[in-house]
Design goal:
Layout lengths: L35 H11 L2 E3 L5 E8 L9 E7 L7 H10 L11 E6 L8 H13 L5 E5 L4 H8 L1 H4 L4 E6 L18 E3 L2 E9 L3 E13 L4 E6 L5 E5 L11 E3 L6 H8 L5 H7 L14 E7 L5 E7 L1
Parallel strand pairs: 4-5, 5-6
Antiparallel strand pairs: 1-2, 2-3, 3-4, 6-7, 8-9, 9-10, 11-12, 11-13, 13-14
Helix pairs in contact: 3-4
Length: 314
Amino acid sequence: MRVCSPFTIEGTIPPPVEMEDEPESAAVVIDNSGSYEERMLEILRKSPVLRLSGNRTITLNNVRQPTRTQNLSAEAMVKASDLEGATLGEVVDQALEANLNQLPLSQKPVAFLFGPENGAIAEQPIYRAAGEAYQKQYAHLFVLGFAIAPSARQFVENCQDTVGIPATYIQATPDLLMGDLLKNMRSSQIFSVCGLPEIRINAVPEGKYQVELLGLDVFDPVTMKVDSEPGKNVPAWFLDTDYNGLCFQVNQAFFPRTGAWDSIKKALKGTYEESVWEHLAGTTSAAFAVGEHRQIAVKVIDDRGNELLVVKSL
């Protein structure tokens, strides 16, 4: 049994990069001697599969740096794997039914923008990259990073309407910051396409509010559709009742999809009301008062361990 203190901090420390040349070793999978973008490009070549929900994948071919670019990090040709229960022809039919008026992504080049090595990617770099990708007639813009600002994530979701090119945020596992301490194989889930939590804010008596987690939306760039996962199937979600836009503070925590409550009760050797456990496993928060910043943030942890953040004003 582990009981943590009121304040804990976690972090991934990037490994130092040696400036001197070292002999190559067959055991090292990723070369960390180059620049950050060169290393990310190499990782993308070695792990060219983007994993979606429902065991579906997108395979990248001919990953390379653009010949002339000011804002883009990489480009590739996309080949979609067969969807479960659907052929590639059916995917094209679905795209036409959605009035996309374009060929499927499997026949078009796509562009990539790499986020910073340390820190969240901001909205302005995405705006510039999207504008260039649209002018050069790329079919899609993939924004790849370790973290993304809420405003930037919102811009990615609305990029089609704002700039004219669809965009998708790709979450990169923090393991990549560990350098060659971990091997990045084709079977590793290094990159994954993430969605956004869907929440509802309800007003309750005494001027307070409650937040209800409705589910998690995951965008599928193969079918150009959004799959929804109900809130009760989410491993964990957290609520910051007074989000300041900089630091997420967990004021309430919930773990809907777990069967560990009986073991926890036994380990803590205490007597608790059953409503306590039902609340911790629920999708509705406790009532809270309006904070100084008048906005809340909800962070959802998905099956792959990605942190998905949505911010709403009260």
